[in-house]
Amino acid sequence: MAPIGLAVVGRPVSAAAGEAWEVVKARGNVPSALLGFDHAMKKYMHERGISAGQLAIARQGKLVFARAYTWSTSQNPVPAVTPTSLFRIASLSKHVTATAVLRLAQEGKLDLGAPVTEYLDLRPMPGRQVDPRLANVTLWRLLQHAGGWDREISVDPATIEHRIAETLGKDLPNDHADVMTYMTSLPLDFTPGSRYAYSNYGYNLLGRAIEEVTGRNYGAHVSAELLAPLRITRMRPGRSLKAETPGEVPYESSFTTRTVLDDSSTVVPFPYGGFNMANKDASGGWVASAVDLLRFERIFDVPAATNLLDSRSISRAYAKPEWGTFASGSWYGAGWFVREKNGGYNTWHSGSMAGSYTFLGRKYDGITYAALFNRRDEGGGDFDAIESLLYGLAAGVNTWPSIDYSSLYF
To answer: Which of 36, 120, 235, 345 has its CA 20 to 30 A from that of 12?
Structure first.
């Protein structure tokens, strides 16, 4: 098997100063039986112009692959990525929030069937009325994206931060209270529980419910109650500005926008001030490495070893919602897309924001993998192909290595 070290693939490209080399540098650990994953990641990144990536793979809780990739050119030199470099994980944060909610329900501190208004005092702007259906927005429905908000109708509040500040007559940046006031002033988009509509706002409400019942900041609670018992020390809530992101990869996007962090007209790179990471916390705000994420997945992969979620709580994570299933037969549980397979479950989630694309998958046979990248598809890149690519490679492995690299990264 390959030791910790460096592998390079590349091809010559033209440059103003003469011939340069594009290289994909790989650092970390890969057993010979899993070299197919290594080759696939290099090809995937090179074809899409992704400069920083990671892949980690576990089998029944043991880390069998930990690899980091850097695609650097003379025109765009990129600092070397390692298996412990940090990435914004975007919506992979949702299963972290869902796990925290399930744990609090397990401890009797939250009732999943209770309306969110039992925990949060949601009030509209003066002169506006609360939609009476808000009383039927339960924690269960928020977990399963059935709370009543549809971003295709009333938009995602994370994308209209200037409008929220202007409507409320407040200065930027907005905080969670501002967002809740604005959203509570709008009617729901559908009857709670009647259908599915992906909602970042719903997960941010779950984060606020966690704060209300625990009496501490959402990130601090998750860190103390879930990450510390797993010895995960690098994973943290993300920050918005480049200067605030030590240890993180550079986030890349071709887009710029007006900052949402103050009332100036400053135009910023979209990943650095185009959105407020603090407001994304429970829905998409965590920063982690791929090996950190697989350490977290031990909660589901080897629950007896972590003792954080019991069997009832794990079954709740995979439970079918009242609205039924998608046409494919899959559904959204609590922080996971779920599909039955061979007597077990495949669960997965992707994440996407300017400067980040992520994917996390868990197969019914105990194989779990996380792939993280420092840019998302901004047109024609088919980034979603990573899902079928990794699943197909995992299905093709006949003999999995027995190695466990975990001690190298914790």
So the answer is: 36
Report, in this order, helix, strand and coil percent for the chain, each rounded to 5.
35, 25, 40
Q: Which two tokens stand for residue 132?
A: 């009476």
Query: Which residue ranges make up each domain of the chain?
Result: 2-89+232-248+288-408, 95-227
Q: Which two tokens stand for residue 233?
A: 């020390």
pLDDT in tens, 263-318: 999 999 999 999 999 999 999 999 999 999 999 999 999 999 999 999 999 999 99
**Buried-exposed string 385-409: b where 16+ CB fall within 10 A, e elsewhere:** ebeebbbebbeebeebbebebbeeb
pLDDT in tens, 130-144: 999 999 999 999 999
Domain 95-227, classified CATH 3.40.710.10, yes or no: yes
Q: Residue 87's beta-bridge partner residues?
A: 288
**The token pair that represents 335 in the structure block:** 């922080």
Where does residue 49 fall: left (phi above 0), alpha (psi -120 to 50 degrees), or beta otherwise?
left
Pick among 1.10.1760, 1.10.10, 1.20.120, 3.40.710: CATH of 2-89+232-248+288-408: 3.40.710
In the predicted model, what is the mean pLDDT of residues 76-91?
94
Answer whether 28's CB lies under 8 Å from 4's CB: yes
For residue 11, is pLDDT > 80? no
Q: Is 380 helix (H, G, I), strand (E, B) or coil?
A: coil
The CA-based angle 131-137-143, given to 5 degrees, is 140
Same CATH fold assignment for domains 2-89+232-248+288-408 and 95-227: yes
Structure tokens at 227: 């990450």
Cα separation values, 296 from 46, 185, 219, 248, 359, Å: 29, 37, 15, 19, 14
The 3-state DSSP class for residue 66 equals strand
